[in-house]
From TrEMBL, chains A, B:
Database matches in InterPro entries: D-isomer_2-hydroxyacid_DH, D-isomer_2_OHA_DH_cat_dom, D-isomer_DH_CS1, D-isomer_DH_NAD-bd, NAD(P)-bd_dom_sf
Keyword terms: NAD, NADP, Oxidoreductase
A GO term from the CC aspect: cytosol
EC nos: 1.1.1.-
Transmembrane intervals: none
All copies of domain D-isomer specific 2-hydroxyacid dehydrogenase catalytic, residue ranges: 43-331
Lineage of producing organism: Eukaryota, Viridiplantae, Streptophyta, Embryophyta, Tracheophyta
Protein family according to the UniProt entry: Belongs to the D-isomer specific 2-hydroxyacid dehydrogenase family.
Organism: Helianthus annuus (Common sunflower)
Stored Gene3D superfamilies: NAD(P)-binding Rossmann-like Domain
Protein name per its UniProtKB record: Oxidoreductase
A molecular-function term among this protein's GO annotations: glyoxylate reductase (NADPH) activity
Pfam families documented for this protein: 2-Hacid_dh, 2-Hacid_dh_C
Location of the D-isomer specific 2-hydroxyacid dehydrogenase NAD-binding domain: 127-298
SUPFAM superfamilies per UniProt: Formate/glycerate dehydrogenase catalytic domain-like, NAD(P)-binding Rossmann-fold domains
């Protein structure tokens, strides 16, 4: 380790004392690889303290320069105000919608994410959800485990994937991986995005309504922003139609969940594969009764391999920060 | 229709009377599209008759030239003996292991299957099962529907697909489609087959044991023959290893099911996605307790689109037979 004093640690203290990292609520990646973090940094665990969060933050307010977070523990303007020395927010996620980016910008606080370390896994799970809903895999498993195969002549036919028109909402790191996979299955892929991507072979539609109208299934892969909140509403679902499938592996609030549940219950769309919800971990109970939906507990990034890789990126960003080196995965935060 | 007398129908009877098609047990494709069959052929429904099958066959023995079947109603040597006029067996399946091919060969009875009409759908479902087991989709759905997300901190990590070594057992119509799909997901595909296919980019292993030893997952895509019966045994599963996944969308008896259940229960392999079983519709009850298996009721070919296409092929073969035209999808049946 570099012995000369650094901006972020004074020479009078031991490095581990001053390499403080605040954790409000432990991200799963942190929990699984806690040993790796604890051996390199002094972890301040707000969630283990008997103090209320605000009081805990007050106690450490002057010293905390870095915080580690994820979607389960938002970094609000209030939290940021409680931490006047804060310089870095490291999130164990690709999305940053749980961080008050405007407040970070105003205060000059850097934000890093996990880059595209989860992209392949999320894309695989998106494709898995689409196959599952169209081919009734989870439904079939319930049928067998319920002992109905031997006693019931029932068989509901699924839908073929080949030649189906699948619309990708947001053709970024994840969306483009979903597109590649679906192309190999013979699907006809199109997309909508903030702007047309001229380097892809896929058909572009300038807005979500046109995409839905020309699709048999939609796969939501975009970030949650003010522009995308509730972008999938009743009108879009009506355009998608009664056989249409929606897969959401992005963020729950991109879909108007009340309208989604209504459309599913009333058969206005054909089915859904949902990894994310508006008010996690709460899932609308009406969905539990439906055989044409597959429900995941926000787990499409949860593999041993991506967790290991994500931990290395989180640690790498914290190491870089405490040794004044360039951050690995800085999130652009400008107007 | 050609007015001149044909080999398979005499001019003194109406065509529909003599275009008799025997059905012992109705294949699902037939049930779904029965109207199309009934409008073109005179269907003799053994399953609707109060007579025992043998007596029913005796009644129609002299006139039945064509039989329609599938895996749920085997065409045994006994059945064939009961039908001295039989010239054609049309099966609503790709596999023909439910037909006594030796007896058909001896009698000069032609056998047609459904060609590769189901191949894309079966390949999609195979990939869906692999993703499902590795990424714990059905398991996750149970977790959410069981109301455990809000109350349990539990999360078992899945396995990443990218860079996993997947071994295809049988690189035919279905196996090669599975390989293409998995390649798009970043899997490292290899295979074993009766002989090496020099036109594919995938690594060949000359036997199942070498393939298993060099694979993280096996996808069974071969036909059931005397050579492949129980080819997946305890030794192969030990070579695959404790994290290894098996997907079977071919025929149940390709796996030694007793040994598979034992390996799964004892944790000697990592999980399984099974569409087929040795004694369908009976599924070993021990599997119902396992969270790392996905169980389907032999449904990987069950889509509206492939059922429609299969019906057209079945009808096309029967039409060709009754008008003395070449059969569409004759199964080679020589030593």
């Amino acid at each position: 380790m570099d012995p000369k004093p650094q901006d972020h640690q004074s020479p009078s203290s031991t490095p581990s004392q001053l390499r403080q990292v605040l954790v409000l609520r432990p991200p799963p990646v942190f929990t699984v690889h806690e040993q790796d973090f604890s051996s390199k940094f002094h972890i301040l665990k707000a969630y283990d303290s008997p103090l209320p969060t605000h009081d805990f933050l007050q106690t450490h307010a002057q010293s905390v320069k870095a915080v580690l977070c994820s979607g389960i523990g938002p970094i609000t303007a209030d939290v940021i105000r409680d931490l006047p020395a804060l310089e870095l927010v490291v999130t164990a996620s690709t999305g940053v919608n749980h961080i008050d980016m405007a407040e970070c910008r105003r205060r000059g606080i850097a934000v890093t994410n996990t880059g595209d370390v989860f992209s392949d896994d999320v894309a695989d799970a998106a494709v898995g959800l689409l196959i599952d809903v169209m081919r009734r895999i989870t439904s079939g498993d319930r049928f067998v485990r319920g002992g109905r195969w031997a006693t019931s002549g029932e068989y509901t036919l699924g839908s073929k994937l080949a030649c189906k028109r699948v619309g990708i909402v947001g053709l970024g790191n994840i969306g483009s991986r979903v597109a590649t996979r679906l192309k190999a299955m013979g699907c006809l892929v199109s997309y909508t995005s903030r702007q047309e991507k001229h380097t892809t072979p896929f058909t572009f539609y300038p807005n979500i309504l046109q995409l839905a109208f020309n699709s048999d299934a939609l796969v939501i892969c975009c970030a949650l922003t003010n522009e995308t909140r509730h972008i999938i509403n009743n009108k879009v679902m009506m355009a998608l139609g009664k056989k249409g499938i929606i897969v959401n592996i992005a963020r729950g609030a991109i879909i108007n969940e009340v309208e989604l549940v209504k459309c599913l219950v009333e058969g206005e769309i054909g089915g859904a594969g949902l990894d994310v919800f508006e008010n996690e971990p709460n899932v609308p109970k009406e969905l539990f009764e439906l055989d044409n939906v597959v429900l995941l507990p926000h787990r499409t990034a949860f593999t041993q391999e991506s967790f290991y890789n994500a931990a290395q990126i989180l640690i790498g960003n914290l190491e870089a920060f405490f040794t004044n080196k360039p951050l690995l995965t800085l999130v652009p935060n400008e107007f």
